[in-house]
Amino acid sequence: MQFEQIIYEKRDDGVAVITLNRPERLNAFTRQMLDEWYAALQDAHLDPQVRAIVVTGAGRAFCSGADVGSGAASALMDRDRSLVENRNFLRDSVQRIPRLLAQMDKPYIAAVNGAAVGAGMDMASLADIRFASTTARFGMTYVRMGIIPGDGGCWLLPRIVGMAKALELIWTGDIIDAEEALRIGYVSKVLPPDELMPYTLQFAQRLAKGPAVAIQLSKRLAYRGMFTDLDEALEAAQAAMILAQMTEDAREGPRAFLEKREPQFKGR
Q: Percent of the chain, pLDDT > 70?
């Protein structure tokens, strides 16, 4: 696919970087951007050489949600069509992103460089880990438009910050800064703007150099464990452990430990 509204880079170190690239519109998404974003994620998901994925924004924003000003939001839901005709407008557009990410075992990290509001905050919430610039701002601003989070925010946010804080943010539409996001556990680290991407890439590189099968199985166990009891989680861990122990990396780790050197994992 030809990318015009995102930049998609697959680096030699096993890290893929998706940069939302409509800085003049604060990276508000259009249907075209969603198509490109989905294609990049799918490519990273299927490429065995990609072991970690970073998403960020160009310019001074991460993502300001759907591009209401340019009519892109109307293109997602055509108010001239009937309710029946519009019933799948979210499913067929923006919801493709969370549905694909739900199947992805590779680490997905957001470097939030600026505003992440409305659907933009939902898109940040989809990441496994979020690092933020000191200039980042977050807001579940749907309520200001008289609508509700349609991209998974009501499911994602309570799992990150707890139900009470999530509802407070969703009901009020309040904007919070990076330090408050750190305090409530929404982001893992806050950095100066010029340090955000170097730190995020270094973190992603560390994961990409790790034992890919073990990392991906651990992610799957962690997410699925949120919906199971302890006994079922332990059974799943037993099955995953068998798979992990069959890898070359599971032999390399103990060997490197005994030889007092850094392990050279190959992801298989």
A: 93
